[in-house]
Every structure is written in C-alpha cells, then in structure tokens.
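Provenance and format

Records in this collection were gathered into a single text stream. Each protein contributes a sequence line and a token line. The two records reproduced below are adjacent in the stream.
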Amino acid sequence: MTPAQDPFYIVRDEIEDSIDKLQDTFHQWKQTPENTGEYVHLTKELLTSCESIQWQVDELEKAISVAERNPAHYGLNEVEIGKRRSWTSTARNQVLSLRRSVEAAGQKSVHGRSVIPSESNRSKKHISQDNDEFIASESDHQMLLIKRQDEELDALSASVQRIGGVGLTIHEELEGQEKLLGELSLDMETTSNRLDFVQKRVAMVMKKASLKGQIMMIAFLVILFIILFVLVFLT
C-alpha cells in the first residue's frame, strides 16, 4: 500500500496541518495583550484545538496498536510501526508542551490580578469592554452567516422546485407515451384479428378450388377413357 493510500499517512497529514494552525494561533496569542477579549478568545481556541488534536493522536495510536498485533496483514513491519509510534509521541509532546504554556499563562494572569486590586479593576473594565466588542463582532458574524444560510436555502428551494417541475413534465410525458403504446397495442391486435380472418377465407377458397379441380380432372379422364375405348374397340 502506497503512502497516498495508507490511512495512517492521510490522518497524519491532517494532524500536521492542525498542529501548524495551532502553532500559528499560539504565536498570535503570545503577541496579543493580556486581559483583552481577543486574548480570552484565543486562549479558549488554543485549549480546544489541543484537546481535539490529542484525541486524534490517541485514536491514531489505537490504530497502530491494532496493526502491531498482525503487521503482515496490514503490509507493515516493526521498523514502520516504530516510526509511526515515534511520530505520534512527538506530536503528542508538541501539543502537550503548547497546552501547558497556555495553561501556565492563564494561571499567572489570575495570580497577577489578585495582587494589584486597582490594576485588576482596570483590567476588568477593559476586559468587559473588549468582551462587549467581541460579542458584538461575533453577533454580526452570526447574523451574516444566518443571512448566507437563508440565501443558500432559498437557492436550494428554487432548485428543488425546478427539479420537481422537470419530474412532473417527465411524468406527463411517460403517461402520454403509455397511452400511445396502449393505442398501438390495440391497433396491432385489431390488425392481427383481421389477418387471421383473411387467412381463413383464403384457406377456404383454396380448399374449394382444389376440390373443383380434382372433379374436373376426373371428368376429363373419364371422357378420355371413353374416347379411347371407342377408338380401340369400334374401329
């Protein structure tokens, strides 16, 4: 089985893409000021992505364990299985390290706010303002998505109506063809009956003509016999 067809490599490529996106988000998160709505949003996104990638790596390791029981059945060997386990271990460590960094920063942020009350109050004010802006932005985004979904549903509804109209036209056309076939079948049956009648009449005529010809032949032979008899015995 080629790497392009092996499910392991397909899933591995997807996980690597997810890790690359996770690292990009992590760099963006590090450059984002703390105590802002965007910072909170990126933190949640990072933790969620870490959990998702860890789950994918766990599932991939389960598949490797299954293949390890009978490598020959899957066209593998111990070296290949070792490489796959090494990759999953490296991927898990990358995600785990990044997750610990995010969680540690979150705990540090919490402790920092508890030490300076005035700074905490200012941070809370900024966080509330940023959260409101973020919520308003998300609300606008959701409204735009809903609008797009409504437009797509309208287009889908119009498409379904067109398909329904085509189906109705096809149904009417089939009914018309069925009617024509019925009429053609009736005409063929009528013609067949007429041909049978004609064939019977022709057979009767031929039979009568044959009987009459036989009688005439017998009469001719009798007359010929009489003539020959007269010629032989009377002359």
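Adjacent record:
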Amino acid sequence: MAENEEPTGGPHFVGKKDELIKAKRSFRTFEDRDILVLYHQEVFYAIDFHCYHTGGPLLNGDIEDIDGKLCIICPKHKYKISLAKGEGWYKSTNPKEKPPTPRWLSKGVKQRIHTITEIDGDVYVKLSEDPQKLDSDYYQGEKGRAIRAKEAAEAAKEAQKAAS
C-alpha cells in the first residue's frame, strides 16, 4: 500500500471458490494485514493469520469442536480460538464445586475475524472495521513482522545454546 493511500477495508479478492475449497487453507496479505482464509464444513472463515498469544502461525492448526464452537488450535501453544467470533477458550474447574467439574470458559474476543463473501464463484474478504484493539493486532503489519523475527532469532539462539 502506498504511503499516502488510506486503507479501504475491501472487499479484497481472495480467489476462485473452487480453488479455495480444494486448498482448504490460504494465506493472504491485504493492507499489511496477514489473513488466514479457510474452508471447513462447507463454510469460509477469515481470521488473523498469527495467533494472539505469541504470534504463532495458525495455518496448520487443527480444527476442533470446543463446547459446540468450531475452534482452531494454535500449533505453537495449543490456544483455542473460535472461528466465528475470535474468542479465546480455556478449560477450568471451580475447586469449590464438589466434585469439581471442568468447564470451557471464554477469555473474550482475542483474534480479529474478517467477513467473507462469495459472488459468482469469486471469494472476497472485507477486513474488520471494529475499532476495538484486539490481542491479535499486536502481531500484524511491519511492527508485527519485526517482533516475530526478533522472537524467532532469540528462540534459535536459545536452541543453539541448549545444543552446545
């Protein structure tokens, strides 16, 4: 995007419906925002590509039903994120309950979700215009790339040190 160009929010062309269905998951960047577009159980979803927790890529995350909600599981730390709303989910028990019963609880919306539309076999994404800052925003754009690169370099350095 040019320096003076204002963000448009889209809709941005993602691809042909048939090709995206076959691919199941696709990585796209629109307006300096990395997006994961996925097709699961006959529905398209668009979600920020990097997990809100530490910026891990969600591309290879498993999709599971968590308490009636379809969630992508971050491969890096197993954080659970609902595809429909971007809520973070965790399992907890109340030790005062007898017997303590594990329950799924929401952390609130953590991951930005974007709108997908299909017109005549073409699939488009409209970037979220919600002004609320979400945790996944931290790992977006040029600043996010720099943060992820720094963290990856530090992890590699630690791994090299441990191997010595």
